[in-house]
Design a protein that fits this description.
The complex is a heterodimer of chains A (276) and B (520). By secondary structure, chain A is an all-alpha fold. Chain A has 11 helices and no strands. In chain A, helix 4 crosses helix 6 and helix 10 packs antiparallel against helix 11. Chain B is globular, with a radius of gyration of 24 Å. In chain B, helix 14 links the parallel strand 17 and strand 18. The chains are: A mainly alpha (276), B alpha/beta (520). At the A-B interface, helix 7 and helix 8 of A face helix 1, strand 6, helix 2, helix 4 and helix 10 of B.
């Protein structure tokens, strides 16, 4: 028996995509718990040297081993993760407001102004985000690294939000709304209430992944975190000289960084991230 | 080929889904050349019936009863059993059954080839012959385009030809022609009947509305909530000697409503004056060649009647300011729209409501409450409690008050969306309501209720109606005056009652004949 020309569609329950997204949020939740309890979970305070032998391999006493100054790598990784997340959160907020929210609003500005802004910020979005971040730090100082990372991811978020809002404007329902006197401001309210707020969590997760990469790269290159306060990027940079014979000094911070970015990407629905 | 050879016999057929019965004790017999229409709404169980017979039943469906195919023995009804007869499924073009990126002809040829197990070239030839046998169908060459580039009527012809090219014993048509205009339905059904007579297949047609059922004019089973309400010839059921539910369904049928007497409102002051309007076609709408002039008075109702592409929708889009006007003048509420600034035009448009058969006319992201509140909040800036009061009153009038107001529009059925549009129009207190094919895609019961809602809306709020339709029956139910469009010009105009009695233009006659049977 065949359904020759079409077979009606049937729902098949929650998709793999939705399940992965839930897994991403669960992972981010666990990271949040680890970050908020880092002082409690870590056996040594941040940057405490000579806790154990130098460059000791992972063992029962030091589960993640120790580094060249005898610091406990488990404690250091937890503190580094905490530092990275605390830097990434304000950067994420900057990306959401200067990027996504501004994009939704700009799309409803008068056509010439809106398209002009889209063109200018589109050019910024085509540049490497790291270059933009370095530029922002150069114009300000290293104290503003979170803002610089947030601003450097913002153009891509702006373009996404702008294009989505413009797409909405061309829909039949927007056309009919305008035909019955609904103003552009009311249509923008629709976008803010339904589009921005509904996608806020996934936008935040996407931005978190992007700014984490930017912040860690800046720290790796020496433009981010300032010693003795170390984030994961700086920890990996510090392990450059000896990670070939003491792999644990770089592997565990890198693993923590990878998990943070992976969970953020999963929580964002594996959507293409803001350019990092 | 004998027309009396048995094709399918269903006995005590029922379907249980997730522990609940969706269809009970249905029995029917179909022989070659016979047609059976199963009429009911989305919850009637007809979709479950088609699913089991077509071999695509839901995972949780548990059929019971027996099915006898051809001359074989009666077998227990089970899902996905391979029957000894050739069953072909035909859906509506609006269901978008084809891949949008490949040509219609190639996709349909592949379907026919797969069914016959033969090469694509011979399947393509079968399809070409099937198209040639259907008068009015496009040629195979015209179907060498992608589905989005072919109009709905041509696509329906193509799907029908592909189904017939598979030489079915039983053709299951799932609302296949529901979205066509009455005139197109008449032509397609006539061609289908001729093919049925020639090859002797049985036709099982699932119908929501009555337009196609009226043209098929065959045996009808009326289903409601999984139960057979009534069964009999269409003419008998339409005659009024039937179950109360059936009578409600048939109230929406064109030609059964009494014509309303003309309203005094047509003698009121002018609301909309269109003078020598000239439009520029946008590729989607027909180009109006002659300047169009007419006047719509407060509280009056004017139907713009014509086939797709005849120019009526282009006219309304121009009136609403959605398309550019090349020439002429539109005066709304004594104000020339062309001299107003954009904000002033927008202010004037606040008193226009729009009710359309397009399912994307409402923002699918918005909630029910927000959809109704928006005109009140945006235009009147009323206090929150007054907005809630107006909203509740409007939702009650259209029968949506019991719905969860925080539900998104996307989750509503087409019928509920249509009622929500009426509720939104009610709170807008418009002086002009533009109503564009309001019954499209609805089942007969919903059509009947919606016409009543629109009538009630007009009686209570008193807006002028501008009705755009290809269906004279809808115009008859909602308007007193009419303009018939053909190829971008007005073919005939005047009081609808007079035109129906004595149509002069051939196009007008054809549009009327497609829905209202000639008298004795």
């Amino acid at each position: 028996m065949t359904a020759a020309t079409a077979t009606p569609w049937r729902a098949n329950g929650p998709s793999l995509h939705a399940m992965l997204q839930i897994a991403g949020w669960v992972g981010l939740g666990l990271i949040a718990v680890a970050v908020s309890l880092s002082d409690f979970l870590a056996s040594a305070p941040a940057n405490a040297t000579a806790i154990g032998p130098l460059l000791a391999a992972p063992s029962a006493d030091f589960r993640f081993g120790t580094d060249v100054l005898g610091r406990d790598m488990l404690s250091e990784t937890l503190h580094g993760l905490s530092r990275t997340v605390r830097g990434a959160l304000p950067a994420t907020v900057v990306t959401l407001f200067a990027g996504a929210l501004f994009g939704f609003v700009a799309a409803r500005l008068p056509r010439g102004l809106a398209l002009g802004l889209r063109g200018l910020i589109g050019i910024a979005a085509s540049l490497p985000a790291l270059f933009l971040a370095l530029l922002a730090i150069g114009l300000t100082s290293r104290d503003w690294v979170s803002v610089a990372a947030g601003l450097s991811a913002a153009p891509f978020a702006f373009v996404r939000a702008f294009d989505r809002a413009r797409q909405q404007e061309r829909t039949t329902h927007s056309e009919y709304a305008r035909a019955t006197g609904i103003s552009g401001a009311t249509l923008m309210r629709r976008d803010l209430v339904y589009e921005f707020s509904d996608t806020l969590l996934s936008s935040a997760a996407r931005a978190l992944a992007a700014v984490t990469i930017i912040l860690s790269t800046l720290s790796f290159l020496g433009f981010g975190a300032v010693p003795p306060h170390r984030d994961l990027g700086l920890m990996i940079a510090a392990a450059k000289s000896y990670f070939l014979h003491a792999w644990w000094t770089a592997a565990f911070p890198a693993l923590a960084l990878t998990l943070l970015i992976l969970f953020a990407r999963l929580a964002a629905g594996l959507d293409e991230g803001e350019r990092a | 080929m004998s027309e009396q050879r048995p094709i399918i016999e269903v006995e005590d057929f029922g379907i249980v889904r997730g522990g609940a019965s969706v269809l009970e004790k249905l029995s029917f017999r179909l022989c070659g050349g016979e047609t059976l229409v199963v009429l009911g709404d989305a919850a009637s169980g007809k979709d479950a019936l088609l699913g089991v017979l077509g071999g695509y039943g839901g995972r949780g469906d548990e059929p019971s009863g027996t099915i006898r195919y051809g001359d074989g023995a009666a077998l227990p009804a089970v899902k996905r059993a391979k029957p000894p007869i050739r069953i072909v499924y035909l859906c509506a073009a609006s269901d978008q059954p084809l891949n949008p990126h490949a040509s219609v002809a190639s996709q349909l040829s592949r379907i026919v080839a797969r069914r016959h197990g033969g090469p694509r070239a011979s399947a393509s030839e079968e399809l070409r012959l099937a198209l040639e046998r259907l008068p009015g169908a496009p040629t195979l060459g015209e179907l060498g385009r992608r589905p989005g580039e072919v109009d709905a009527t041509a696509l329906s012809w193509a799907l029908l030809a592909a189904a017939l090219a598979q030489a079915p014993d039983l053709l299951i048509a799932d609302h296949a022609f529901a979205d066509l205009t009455p005139r197109a339905i008449k032509t397609v059904v006539a061609a289908l009947a001729a093919e049925q007579k020639r090859t002797g297949f049985a036709l099982l047609y699932a119908a929501r509305g009555l337009k196609t059922a009226a043209q098929l004019n065959s045996r009808v089973i009326v289903l409601r909530q999984g139960k057979v309400i009534e069964e009999g010839p269409f003419a008998k059921l339409a005659g009024g000697q039937s179950h109360a539910y059936t009578r409600t369904l048939f109230k929406a049928m064109p030609g059964t409503q009494d014509m309303k007497p003309p309203r005094n409102a047509t003698r009121g002051e002018p609301l909309l004056q269109v003078q020598a309007l000239d439009l520029i076609g946008d590729g989607r709408s027909a180009r109006t060649r002659d300047g169009i002039s007419f006047e719509l008075r407060r509280g009056a109702s004017l139907a713009l009647i014509g086939e797709e592409g005849s120019g009526r929708r282009a006219l309304v889009r121009a009136l609403l300011g959605l398309d550019h006007i090349a020439g002429g003048r539109v005066v709304l509420d004594q104000v020339d729209m062309s001299i107003l600034s954009a904000p002033m035009t927008s202010r004037l448009r606040r008193r226009i409501a729009f009710i359309t058969g397009a399912d994307d006319a409402l923002d699918p992201r918005m909630t029910i409450w927000d959809t109704v509140d928006e005109p009140l909040r945006a235009h009147l800036r009323l206090p929150r409690d007054m907005v809630a009061g107006h909203r509740e009153s409007a939702l009650k009038r259209v029968g949506l008050a019991s719905h969860d107001g925080r539900q998104a529009v996307a989750a509503l059925s087409p019928y509920d969306r249509r009622r929500l549009q009426v509720a939104r129009a009610i709170v807008s207190a418009p002086f002009l309501a533009v109503i564009d094919e309001p019954l499209r895609g609805l089942d007969a019961f919903a059509q009947s209720i919606l016409i009543e809602l629109l009538d009630d809306f007009r009686r209570q709020e008193g807006p002028a109606f501008l009705v755009i339709t290809a269906d004279v029956g809808i115009a008859r139910a909602l308007a007193e005056d009419a303009m018939f469009f053909k190829d971008g010009r007005v073919a005939e105009r005047g009081p609808l009652r007079e035109i129906l009695k004595n149509p002069k233009d051939a196009e007008t006659k054809a549009l009327i004949a497609a829905v209202i049977p000639a008298g004795p």
